[in-house]
Amino acid sequence: MALALLLALLPGARTSSRSQHAAFQITGYASDWTPPSTIDTQASAISNVGIDGVGVSPSGSSIGPPSARSLALLAVAHAHGLRSTLLVGNWGGPSGVSPGIASRLLTSGPHRAHVVYRLLQIVRTEGWDGVTLDLESLSSSDGPGLVALATALRSRLPRGDLLAVDVAAPQSIAGDIAEGYRLPSLGRVADVVLMAYDEHGPWSGPGPIGGLPWLKRVLNVARNQIPSQRLILGMAAYGYSWRVGKHPTSAAVTDVQALRLLLRDRSHPRWNAVQGEWTAALRHRTVLWWSNSRSIRLRETLARRLHLGGVAIWQLASADALPAR
Fold it and tell me: What domains are there in the chain, each with its CATH number?
């Protein structure tokens, strides 16, 4: 019982932005270390692949070239007839992202202009189908620059190319602005990917990764500011393990790792229908919460019912087998 639970596309072939937005998008994210076989396995379940491929330079003035691994994933995505966007992030710092790098990019007109130039150069020469801006840990002073960066990209990218901006789950409109996101302005020029995950994590006690009650609250904040068709619901395909007590620890887990922990512990998972996630209590005061394909299907159904533009899954390498479309 536990085990059971447990082409390159030619430019002329790209569709117009209007037809793209008429279709429900299912995006799967991949890092450049993701094995190409992962895209082979999950290709029938998705329409787009976002490849976490380039980072902003420490000075905020440029970006590096995509790695050979990223280009290999691009080729695999195209071979399956999937569109693939180049994801650019402000990597660095102890938390994985650098507020300073983002600020040096977003508050400087010349820096933004050069990054736009480089992104357009890469997209055109290497055959990407658009860009995803994944700039995190922002401050309120970064907000106008993020809108300016997205606007400049939209005005210069080919009309049929995708443009998306990842945003943290909003708790309130004022909170959005404080975190550097002007959602109405971003929604006028790009798809907005709402990262509705990490409700709980290493910084907190055990709990759902992006439980349905919390998800619906943050989704309502975003829907009051962005047309539904521009809003993409970001979903977790992973979980966390917490050991509680005097010396608490935590770690991220993939679906496979969660199932292995259950088997080793001879424990059984429990589906929490309220949260729409799996959970389990293991020995040694260890608690698991994680999302799998059942969680993802539930959230996709919600996104379709609300007439959103699509869903985005972080990430393919940590997910179990997704349902074919």
Answer: 17-195 (3.20.20.80)
